[in-house]
Structures are given as structure tokens and as C-alpha cells.
Amino acid sequence: MPRDDLPLKPIEDKPRKERTPAPAWVALASPWLGLASLILSILIFLVPGSRDPRAELSHARPYSAADWILMIAIYMSVVAVFIGLVVLRQMRTQPRPLSTPLAAQRLQALVGLILAGIGVAIIYVGVAIHAAGGHL
């Protein structure tokens, strides 16, 4: 019970603004982008690589197929992680327990994060092994 004789009144709690969740297609994009980055990260080691990296870096020769796939896989995994994190962040203020569609979107975001993480791990371990001369 608030007292009227106090010089300062307590601050009233403001209700938290409920965020609007992302559209369903955004959550669905995360696992598909994660899967694509995982497939591309495996494909890097199956396509022909660079024969003359110095010439490629100085733009005397075009980039090899492995270099293009590496670049696409890395950027795609970043986008998959970003989308997954955005979907999860927007669900923080939703009332619990989550409704069935929101729970499915959360699962899709988590699957996208996991697949993209596995793809990134394959890329970095494979490139490190390749840079070390084929063995660690």
C-alpha cells in the first residue's frame, strides 16, 4: 500500500512490450540456409582447388571453383546464424508456453544454427588441415 506522505513515489512498472515474431518464412529460411552451407562446406573439398594462389590474389587468374564455394559457404552460414538468432531473440517476450507454430519456428531456428555451426567447423578444420600440408 503506497504511503502518501513520502516525498518520492515508487516508479510504476511498465508492461514489457511484446515483440511481433518474425514471419514463418524467415524461420524456415534458417534451416535451409544452414543445410546449404553444410553441403557447400563438404563440396569445397571435392571441387578442384587453386593451383596458383598468388596469381589469383593479384587477379592475374580467375578464382578457382573451391575459392568461390568457400566464399559462398562462409557468407551463407553467417546469414543462417543471423536469421536464427533474430528469430530466437524475437521470441524472448512471447508468453510461455509457446504456441505450436512459435515452438516450430524456434526449432527451425535452432536447427539452422546447428547446421551452420557444423558447416563452419568443417570449413575451418578442413582449411587448417589443408594449410598444414594434409595432416595436423
Count the E strands: 0
Mean pLDDT: 85
β-strand percent reads under 5%
Q: What is the C-alpha radius of gyration, as a whole number of Å?
A: 23 Å
Measured between the Cα atoms of the first and last residue, the distance is 69 Å
Silhouette = elongated
Residue runs with pLDDT of under 50 for 5 or more positions: none
The biggest sheet, with number of strands, parallel, antiparallel or mixed sense and barrel status, is: none
* Total count of helical runs of at least 4 residues: 4
Topology:
Blueprint lengths: L23 H20 L9 H5 L7 H26 L9 H32 L5
Helix pairs in contact: 1-3, 1-4, 3-4
Walkthrough of the structure:
It is a single chain. The chain has helices spanning about 25-45, 55, 65-90, 100-130. The chain is mainly α and about 140 residues long. The radius of gyration is 23 Å and the shape is elongated.
Quick tags:
4 helices; mainly alpha
Question: Could you give a quick summary of the protein structure above?
Answer:
The chain has 136 residues and is mainly alpha-helical.
